[in-house]
Amino acid sequence: MLSIDSIANLFSNKQFKCKSFEVSEESEEAVLSLDSIQKSEDIICPECGGRVHVHDHPEIRLKDMPFEPDSSQMIVVRSHRYQCQNCFHSFNEVIDFKYPGTRVTKRAAAWIKAFLRHGMTITAVSELIGIHWETISRIHKEVMEEELAKRAERLLSRNYKPKRLAVDEFAIHKGHTYATCVMDIDEGDVLWIGKGRAIADFSKFFEEIDMEYLSEVEAVAMDMNASYNRLVEQKLPHAAIVYDRYHMQAQFGKDVIGSVRLEEARRHQHEAKEIEARITDGMSKAEIREIKDQAKEERRLYRKLKKSRWTLLRNSSNLSEDSAENLEKILEDHHDLAVCYAMKEEMCDLFDLRDPEIAEFMWESWFKAAKESKIPQLEKFARLKEKRIKGLIAHAEHPISTGKLEGFNNKIKVAKRIGYGYRNDEYFFTLVRYSALPSVKCKKVKKKHLKQ
Length: 452
Hints:
The chain has 452 residues and is of the alpha/beta class. It has helices spanning 4-10, 106-117, 122-129, 133-157, 199-208, 228-235, 245-276, 285-306, 309-313, 321-333, 335-350, 356-371, 376-385, 389-397, 403-418, 425-435, 440-451, and strands at residues 16-24, 29-36, 52-56, 59-64, 72-78, 81-84, 90-92, 164-173, 177-184, 190-195, 219-222, 240-243.
């Protein structure tokens, strides 16, 4: 343990002297008391430059880094409050080792920043050094804002402007509370996050960001659930709207293939009940057995369809031999399901086209065939999605998606679980943007590895 003399030497060049140093064994808290030795003759009024005198002796308690883990260190500072003899302006003595805006020392703040940069959670840091988590979160927010500002300066020095954006929403709280996120696809930076997912909420993005920075945007990827396209067409008329292929395929799998599959499965189940209902008391055992076998076959087909969800949704090229054989039998026995599966495979191929003119012709042909299929689910899907055909055709010229942003949403979910949710949305949004920054540490490791 440090002695009072050795601790006093730490402040020998400061305007404070050590009054006492006590350690409480019960609370595991060390208290260092300091008194100001600054002379009023050396201070002038910041307002008029006049002479001042000591008006009061305020006391402030600052948290410092503890000398041992799982304990706390407190510095009690008794400073001066000065008053001008000319204009009567009052001001406090400057405590140069106090971190601005907090009740912690600069040394403690420096350690907190180091802990946070190395991946420690706010709760873990708080428990380790005995400083309240709200103070640590405030310092963490400053660290993140500093890194974001440095990142913005680096991009500005390169005269960089984003060319391809992705827009999507994610849940931030239970009860259908969402936030909208805008990502630069090429660099991976999150440009903006705002609470809500309505058009009015998304409009704040164009109000808060410099439109000159978006002057070179060529395409914006989004899904069809929200009406973001209207605002993008208005604010970025030079940018193409590209609808995400994976959302399109997922909706087709759910609304068309999934619905037709369940309908066919229920038909088999209903058929089995009707077949069993034909059994009467006057029938022979052979006739009853034959009817039960027919009902059993219908139930087998029902179970087979119920288990075939992922077989039908998966691309044919990714199926094993057994799955492909099983799929072929299912499609042979179910005409509507076979038509929907063929339309799904053709739709996936349309997203691989790179000629806009060919893409336009093929998409129009696809929608026409879907509407003429006489399958209610497929017709409805085609009528709804045909309205967005321009954004589907644009994929041929700008083959982008929201996949990178969707993947980043998983990182957001992890951050939410680690923090057990966040009450301060502003802090959480800053954390999300900070999490999207490229890892400088990883870059250094890669460079070092390449040199070796």
